[in-house]
Amino acid sequence: MFIIIALFIGFVTALAGSVAGLGGGVILVPALLFLSDHYQSFTWVTPQKIVGISLVVMIFTGLSSTLSYFKHKRVDLKAGFLLLIGSVPGGILGSWLIQFFETNHFALLFGSVMIIVSLLFFLPRKPPSKIVLKGKKRIVDLNGEKYSYTFPFGYGFLLSFTIGILSGLLGIGGGSLIVPALILLFRFPPHIATATSMFIIFISSITSATTHIYLGHVDWARALYFIPGAYLGGMCGAFINRKVDGQAVEWFLRILLIMAGIRLIWQGIG
Q1: Rounded to the nearest 10 degrees, what angle do helices 103-120 and 246-269 cross at?
Q2: SS3 per residue for 213-253
Q3: How far apart, in Å, are the Cα atoms of 52 and each of 78, 137, 245?
Q4: Looking at residue 139, what DSSP letter applies?
Q5: What confidence tens digit (pLDDT) does each residue in 40-77 have?
Q6: pLDDT in tens, 212-257
Q7: Alpha helices by DSSP H, the chain
Q8: Is the pLDDT reported for residue 182 higher than 60?
Q9: DSSP helix/strand/coil, 146
Q10: What is the pLDDT of residue 185?
Q11: pTM above 0.85?
């Protein structure tokens, strides 16, 4: 039964995570916390093991979806590499900090972050012409429609380091923070933001997972069963993302973050 559940969770979390550029940790983490409270076969779950498994699984989610996004030229490589410069050391620091958290505190912090980020999508946005950012201007063509946005290097680095810490600490791959930041702060088209996020998640998850492996947080006997479903789900999610418009991606992201946040805050309080 555990094997079937692991394969299913791996597929669903990667599918949803790839569509929204979150990596899947935002679903996998609360799913395992929920199962640990209701099923005897998941009593082994601890915050450290959850994050370790989540980051290992996201390596394969990120790999499959990134390959698909690359094929259709939706990854902003320059922005992606800049964000990695800050997110990699931040992820290592966050991975080290997780050992000081207990389950309830961990769930409460995770849920609060998700709710705050999701609410930002409902704030009124200034028209692009009224937003002044210093940085290299990008112009992309998506399905015959041109999009223009600017990515400031200084703000990008500070943002990526902060996101890296939360990524390693919460096991969310940073995508649940990277995508809203790119869309809301830097006016990235949602499709470019999600694709670039999955590229960052793939690279940063390797470094964060390595730290968790060194600290002994990865239960390999169980983690391996999540990987096949995650790889397949990542490819399917990237395919679905290409078929829907930007507004649909944003709404999917909002709903995903709110649902996960409410569930974790409830568990943390209880």
Answers
A1: 150
A2: HHCCCCCHHHHCCCHHHHHHHHHHHHHHHHHCCHHHHHHHH
A3: 28, 37, 33
A4: E
A5: 888 888 877 887 888 888 899 889 999 998 888 889 88
A6: 888 888 888 888 999 999 999 999 988 998 888 777 877 887 887 7
A7: 2-20, 25-38, 47-71, 77-97, 103-120, 153-170, 175-184, 190-214, 220-223, 227-243, 246-269
A8: yes
A9: strand
A10: 79
A11: no
Looking at residue 11, its pLDDT comes to 94
Residues comprising the chain, all counted = 270
Q: Are 168 and 208 in contact (CB under 8 A)?
A: yes
Q: Residue 37: which of 50, 25, 20 has the closest Cα?
A: 50
What is the rounded distance in angstroms from the CA atom of residue 238 to the CA atom of residue 151? 23
**How many CB atoms lie under 10 A from the CB of residue 263?**
18
Q: How far apart are CA 155 and CA 153, in angstroms?
A: 6
Which residue reads 């002044």 in tokens? Answer: 132
Return d(Cα 197, Cα 184) in angstroms, integer.
Answer: 14
Residue-level pLDDT at 233: 92
Token pair for 182: 């790119």
b/e sequence 143-180, b meaning 16+ C-beta within 10 Å: eeeebebbbbeeebeebbbbbbbbbbbbbbbbbbbbbb
How many of the other CB atoms lie within 10 Å of CB of 129?
6
Q: One-letter amino acid identity for 155?
A: Y
